[in-house]
């Protein structure tokens, strides 16, 4: 633990100004342990040592990427409240599950309520994407043909609308999850789905969703030096 600053400083130096944050995989659910090649320890975000390390990120102007499953959103909300200076991005809509004991339609209302509570933390942003994984149970990979952009947009629309409604476009960013998404669709189809999903947004909202939010969150327009 005492070495966390030295490790971060070493990574910043090695990255030549490109290091912007730490993506720690915390996605863990005992019912679906075989879903990923890497299985993090249970209760990672509850570990006081982990939270102490997390609090060191703002001193280095670094962000935290949270890849979790939907039952863990409440815990991330606790973390965000406890560490208000840490800029956090929720990956992949917060990982709403639809496999094992989880039924996608039954999960949705609770997921939406948890997302609303998380959005009350001004230090949290959300990435809109990553729902093409098998654990999300849209089952695009089982169909005889890959999905069209309209099919993908229709499937993801409730999740996108819930996030934009609660976080605002200025804290939402579209994301690809390639190469993982390649099991379900092609890259152009994915981005055409995003364009369909953003069809009713204003010009400024579209600018945020496709570029502005990410640029601000990751400080893409600024150099980083110590």
Could you name the key traits of this structure?
alpha/beta, globular, 226 residues, 5-stranded parallel sheet
Structure write-up:
By secondary structure, the chain is α/β, with parallel strands linked by helices. It has a single domain (4-217), classed as Metal-dependent hydrolases (TIM Barrel). It is 40% helix and 9% strand. The chain has seven helices and five strands; from the N terminus they run αβαβαβαβαβαα. The protein has a five-stranded parallel beta sheet with strand order 1-2-3-4-5. α3 (73-82) runs parallel beside α4 (104-119). The radius of gyration is 18 Å and the shape is globular. The mean pLDDT is 93.
Say which CATH homologous superfamily is assigned: Metal-dependent hydrolases
Radius of gyration of CA atoms, rounded to a whole number: 18 Å
Indicate the mean pLDDT. Answer: 93
The CATH topology label is: TIM Barrel
Number of distinct beta strands: 5
Biggest β-sheet, characterized? Answer: 5 strands, parallel
Strand content: 5-15%
H/E series: HEHEHEHEHEHH
Strand order of the largest sheet: 1-2-3-4-5
What is the helix content? 25-40%
Number of helices: 7
The CATH level-2 architecture is identified as: Alpha-Beta Barrel
Task: Based on Cα principal axes, name the global outline.
Answer: globular
Structural class: alpha/beta
CATH class: Alpha Beta
Number of domains: 1
Question: First CA to last CA: what distance?
Answer: 22 Å
